[in-house]
What we know:
- Chain A has helices at residues 3-6, 16-27, 62-69, 95-109, 120-124, 141-150, 165-178, 192-202, 238-242, 252-256, 273-284, 319-326, 373-383, 391-410, 427-430, and strands spanning 53-58, 85-91, 115-117, 131-134, 154-157, 182-184, 209-215, 293-295, 306-308, 314-317, 331-336, 340-344, 347-351, 414-417, 422-423.
- By secondary structure, chain A is an alpha/beta fold.
- The termini of chain B are far apart.
- The chains are: A alpha/beta, B alpha+beta.
- At the A-B interface, helix 1, helix 2, helix 7 and helix 12 of A face helix 3, helix 5, helix 7, helix 9 and helix 11 of B.
Amino acid sequence: MSQTRGRSLRTQPVSRRELMASALRTTASLALPAIVPASALGKGGRKPPSERIVMASIGVGGQGTQHVVGGIWTPTGGLVGREDVQYVAACDVNARNLENARRLVNERYGNQDCKVYRDFRELLARPDIDAVLIATGERWHPLLTVAAARAGKDVYCEKPLSVTIQEALAVREAVKRYGIVFQVGTQQRSSRAFRFACELARNGYLGELKEVVVAVGGPVGLSDCHLPAEPVPEWLDYDMWLGPCPWRPFNNAYVFGWMGFRDFSGGEMTNWGAHHFDIAQWGIGADSSGPVEIIPPDGKDVRVITYRYPNGVVMTRDPERMARESGQGNGVMFIGTRGKVAVWRYDLRTWPEGLAKVVIRPDEVRLHVADNHHTDFLDAVRSRGTPGAGVDVAVRSITVCHLGNIAYELGRPIHWDPVHERFVNDPDASRLLARRMRPPWRL
Amino acid sequence: MSRKRRHTCLFAGTVLVVGTALLLAGSAVAQTVSPDLERLMSGLRGFHYGPDRSALDAVAQTVREAVRSPQQRPQVARALMDVALSPAAEEARQFACRQLVYIAGLEQVPSLLKLLHDDAMAHYALMVLARIPGRAVDHAMRQALGHLEGKTLLGAVDLLGERQDPASARAVAVYARSADNALAACAMTALARIGTSEADVLLLAEYRRSPPARKALFADALLLRADALRQAGRRADAARFYTAVDAASLPETYRAAAWRGKLLLQGDAGADALIAAMAGPASRRRSVAASLARTLGTAVTTRKLAGALPRLQPDSARLLLDALADRGDRTAVPGVLRMLKSRDERVRASAIRALGTLGGAQAVEQLLAVAADASASQRSLADQALAGLRGKGVDAMLARALSNRKASIQAAALRALTARRGDMPMDRVLALARSGQGALFAAAVEALRELGRPTDLEQVLQMVLRRQEADRDRLGAAWLAIARRCPPERSSSLLEEQLRKAGSQQERVVLLELAGQLGGERALALLISAARDPDPEIQLTALRALSEWPDARPMAILRETVRAKPSGRLRSIAMRGYVRSLGLPGGPDPMRAADLYLEALGMAVNADEKRMVLAGMATVGDRRVLETVMSLTGSSDLRAEAEQAAFSICRLTAGAWPDETRSALQKLAADASLTEVRQGSRTLLNTMDRFGDYVMAWEVSPAYSQEGADFSRLFDVPFAPEDPTLEAGAGWRVMPVGTSAEQPWLLDLLALHGGEQRVAYLRTAVWSDAEKDLVAEIGTDDGVKVWWNGEYVYGNNTQRAVAPSQEKVRVHARQGWNRMLLKVTQNIMGWGACVRFAATDGSPATGLRYSLPSSLPNGER
């Protein structure tokens, strides 16, 4: 079969960008028709359509909308402010969020072209969409990422990646199987301060790295959702909002504070933990590895949760210590035999002070350089490379967070085999690697 | 079936029979439950959705203990199972199942199977069943399949797949023919996960017999199995599955995934297919190929890929160059170097980027050539590539290039060595800075700026004095950068010495400009002395530097100059500097600043100077200043500036002097010539109308922080406002209000001070018509401490978003003026407060009014 026949739209959807690139190349040797608008050729400041990445969102609540139009935690201007993106559609189970997103996008573009969907499957079925931004809450992140991978869409997925370790592993399998570009929204990987702190740790400027202190909040409590039933608002498809989670009657607090409930989230261990444990992994050099022992506080000898790495590094979750030693209660601190560095959004401090002026030389360990998390993702979409917060990194980092939660839940030390990504002779801990999704949802 | 396989099944069957017998026996044994456990479970049985979760917490705690105790575990599991089967509320039964996930054993399996027929419980039962180890569970599930339907059946089939039960292949394969697409796809995935030879046969058979429309539904299952076989090293078996998917007329996504799998099986032998895909048109397969080109095979593949570069269309060549860069195999370097000669500029750019990652010393010469002579964009890329080149010999080659005959090559090498912090021959750099022109001079000066040593300080200063004016700024910046790396006295004494020796006015001017930028006590003294120099040009230079000094220390000399010079350029510069200094660190207390601004307005001799003063007055929350500024809104040449200043002042006075502020705002809303002032005034008036009974007359302290202390620790660290002896000097200023239309009551400390991990204080004076008890309703983001008439009365060290009435603090007001002081901590993000008073019965307080403490008559303060 010839390549041309192989690209029949009827049977073999090709993304719109691929199609446009090909079409423009085919017509390049011909005289362009006079009716092609200047904007389509990239004049007037816009990139030509073949170079724009067509994007859509699934989940346009607070963070999801910030991704679209820009906000405090997302790059200025958002996706609609970029010349290399054409944002075409949004999906949400919350009709109010959806309408708000449509209005903002249409205002930005000065047209009425943004389409909206209540069911993600309809959005993913569109062959013209190259990539999706998923920002729904972690209960949905794995299912949506896997579905998008199967549809051949590249994925920018907000953190936390998952509610369990097994779900994260399933995401990694699907991303690799379908060869999509994936990035998780741990945007500290696109920050100079965090990168530099990790480079100091990795290159021996602190001496031998001995400890890492991570300053984030702890896990959610032991109980599940317990709140009284409230009427389901007409703007919400509640069953779809719950998705794979165990069913319980609607309560407003779930929708607007899901991170406080174990059925929906791993609490601060995975919320801020997804950021700062991720940086710890980066600085330790454990992006393809992880801790081997996790010891929860015991009220006696072990005051805070403690992770031990194969190379002897000890990591603790200890916001009080970080605050005491650095003045910052949210961030990461690397401590070596000759110095230390504390880093937070978006600054750092070193001991001795002169370390802050170190220039990392070419022959030293130089970590992935990115200054804008959206750009890093979109560059990878174009080159088919791996962004700084790619799927391997994402899975290893969220695993660290989940391991902490499991140790907290069991109240005793657990041993992890980072090579095979399983517990060492621990059937009780292994029970907590996965959770049955509510049928019909499955990975 | 093979003999070995048959033996395995027979053995498994025996285990299952024994296991089932145990299950049945276990369920029949009468068990005693401890009174404590019974009490706990009784609490759980009585649980209904609601705010009280204590019954759940107690059970959860017991379950965590049971996980660690083999003795307790069966008893607790039994008790939970009883609750799950009881007529208790659905939520109690579901919670029991959620806890059984941790500790359920085979004994609970029969009961859990029963729950599969209860719609409210089926998912919860599956959650538990999934986690109980042992093939007996699989056996029981398999038996149950025929009695299940709908989503529960789907969940059960999926569960058998997840548990990889080898005996379930036939049982789940039945459902691959279901008319329900979701169930059929689920059954195929289960077969793929089971992964026995039998399951593989069934999987392929069901796939092949399925109609074309269903093949797309099943393709993921085949790929899943194929990937597992590939990872297990069963290449031939994996290839069968990949081929099945790639050969079908499926969506390109699946075919590309299958093709990827086949190439991974082939390793280096797949390189040609990879190149062919890269050479093809844009497609899913080409995208997958570009991704795979980063990892497939060994150096053999690298060489083939690099060799294919010249044959590819530009788009494909660029993709492959990016991939080769990520691949990190230097075998590709010769091929990538050839692409520097591509006719396509974007291909050349990709090649340069790739060399930055891959290239070593062998790439230096060609990259230098690009960096020296190519277009600006390519030059920049080549600079970046040279800066990142790894490997031995790179620095040495670059250093040798400093002696190249071409100045552009020398310049490129200098830029690279500077960026690399390479071993720089500084004497050569000094020579190039002395003699070089254009890009070479710029590169040499940049090298000095970044890498210059203290020993170079004097030579560079001489260059500053000797080079032509056009080069002086750049050299001066380099000198300052080196000076800042030296002890401060060394650079300032060098300046002082040069000033003494300076032969010309021009040299003195240059040296004074450097002193202004260098800063420090000695430099300031030099400038103050020069400001009194008889040479007007020297005076001018000194006053310019002083008027831009970063703190208020030159305030006196600037004021002296203004008063001494009735007109002219010197006066104008001094006036600007003086007005600026009133608002700088170390300047007058904010309350005193009002007097000085009013005085400065009186000293201003023309409209320009008055505009300068008005800009400063806009930051002062004082009713006299407001009144004065409002009087200037009628002035034809100052009207716009006065309107803007008056509006800014209104934000500061709205809380403390609401009547005066309203009057001003109404005038501005009606008459202002500037639209934004008219609209802003209306909005602020509207916001003031919604202040309600919140206290808006506040003074605010500076923000305080302390080394090593976060917001929580700062809560107990006393700063000046807490100390009666220091409070007066705490730098109080008027708190701006009405900054948020949505939260008109908000005292927005974040907008005022910004930052994290700090505290600030707010103070107000409350006049009461009689002695009485009051309730202060306080909201803060984050924690708060409260003092009333000097007594500490309340504290809450917390982190939260602000909302009205988060704290209700009872205080005793005396007749007349009372003093209230708040300390508000800041963790991250929002930071603010709000306060109002109520009577003790909750009704709004009466007989109160509020004032800024510093505005009270002396006797009342």
